[in-house]
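Q: I'm writing up a methods section and want to include an example of the input and output format. Could you take the sequence below and give the corresponding predicted structure tokens, formatted cleanly so I can copy it straight into the document?
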Amino acid sequence: MDEIKSNSGIVKNDFEVEELGKVTIGEERELSDNVDLVVAQANEFVMMPRDPIKLTHQKILRLFFMQIRPGDCMLYRYKITAVKAAEILGVSVNNIYDELDELAEIATAKGVWVKNKDERKAKRYPYALEAGYENGVFEMVINPLLAPFLLGLTKDYFQYPMRYAVNVSKKYSIDILEMIISKVMLKNIPDRGVFVTLTLQELLSKFMLIGNKTYDGKVNNVTSRILEPALIDINSSTNYRIDYTKIKDNKTVTGFKIFVNDAKNKHLDYTEGVLYKKAMRFDERRKGEEVIDLDESQYKFVDVEKVDSSNSLILTGKGWVNGKRVSFVNRGGNLEIMDENGNTISVEAFTAVNRPVPVENDKTSKENGDKDARSFIVADEKPRSQEEDFRRINEYLESAQGEK
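A: Here is the clean output for your methods example:
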């Protein structure tokens, strides 16, 4: 193995040379920021237990994995500035400085637990042979012990665009996405989707939660805090459409039947899926809800919080504007719309009619002298596409979850 010289601020793992095998460390190579390039890993690699790390750290590590190209026979040193990392991840550069500084230590200390066939216990293989952060620049060399799972892959591996990892926002999303697509093993998903299985043991083992009082033996916590938030996030951040049902042995949940499809396919819905059924129940509750038409182009689905005694005038409520959650209150004949922090976005002239009326009848109220009226209109009940169903699935569960 080529000698690697430690620079100032670099943390280096002291592995025995024979442990590193025949993997050579090349010179520094320019890091690509093209998130349409793929992250490729061995199927067995993503099922291995790993130390918990922040989502930002997971994304940056995948960015370094992405640098490995078909035909590479050695590992290289890569560097990335904090400014470039923030640009790729779509975050504030002020937030990335500390994250990179932390990762310089974490990458050489935390990693994947690998159990070789001739060993009784698993060993931790840190992510990096060496890593450092100095003067706004993070650099890393991937641990050569991980090379069999990342380098020169020709079979039993999977890949996905780096942008999927960039887009997700939940802690478990990347790992669960990788676990699922490693089991699909198809280049193209058929129109009606495919099914794979994730066992409860695989999930608990992967996230090192065996024996954890919050999750081990508490399936509802696993589904509500880990699996469902991740699947919702994946559905809204990637081209995959995923749902699930529970697998039971008598009354004991032993795993999950995962439905996987591609957004370009026609048959996206899995009518037996837990997320689908929750969305449909949510949809039933919303049939009588109203939408406020402020400018004949913006519609806001409204969660009514308070109404007057005639059950017609919304005093406070919540909705969406351009995909962003807002709240509103009727004050002195005006509808004040506020963002999540309580800052006023706009104030609209507002006079409520006595009863919700269809949008096509809105003209009637104005002809009756209510020229400044912003009438209530009934929520759209036109036949929906499957894509719309999935949007509502995500909408329901995001409103129910709240926490990222």
